[in-house]
Amino acid sequence: MKGYAWINAIASVCDPRSYLHFFRLIHYYGYSHVRPRRRLHAGEGTGIAPNVSFRNGERIRIGRGCRIGERCFLWAGDTTGRIEIGDHVSLAPGVFITASDYRFMAGRPFREQPKRELHVRLGNDVWLGAGVVVTAGVTVGDGCIVGAGAVVTGDLPSGCIAAGVPARVIGQRPEMSESTTP
Question: How many CA atoms lie within 13 A of 151 on its CB side?
Fold first, then answer.
């Protein structure tokens, strides 16, 4: 049995498909991470995890002092849909923001449907929890906190706490006192 494991290990290392897959991964990171990242605008002091996926970076603006977590997806539209993120925004791991989705017309496969591109705006001091999805056309007001796993399909007012699928306002952030203001 042990000899068989060694043969499998050697066969795996010698398989040229493993090396071809490596080049496919390099290509993927080039078109979804490196090239679009060069086109986006990120403000001073913003930190972006190395495995964040961008689409159409030229239509993405990230403010100052933001933190974009691991495995986030920021997908602006192909032609007009923009993503605008304010200052001091935090996106936890796995957040998905898209400025483009499909319309639905009877009798046509979804891939042949026309796209709907609408701007997405996140205000200042917004925190999106792990796995939050923000759909095209949404505005999230200043100071909002959105709970993990929420799907934001409509606008959220400033200072709210939202959660759920679809996301609903479940509370308000307490006002910051002058003693806690930086």
Answer: 3
Quote the tokens at residue 75: 């997908």
Instruction: Give CA–CA dist 64/82, Å, rounded.
Output: 18
Coil, strand, or helix at residue 60?
Answer: strand
Taking only the tens place, the pLDDT of each residue in 97-152 is 999 988 778 888 877 888 889 999 999 999 999 999 999 999 999 999 999 999 99
In degrees and rounded to multiples of 5, residue 172 shows phi and psi of -125, 145
CA 133 from chain centre, in angstroms, equals: 8
CATH number for the domain harbouring residue 66: 2.160.10.10
Give the range of the structural domain holding residue 46, as residue numbers without chain letter.
40-172
d(CA 136, CA 87): 20
Contacts of 19 (CB under 8 A, 6+ apart): none
pTM score, whole prediction = 0.80
Longest distance between any two alpha carbons in the chain, whole Å: 70
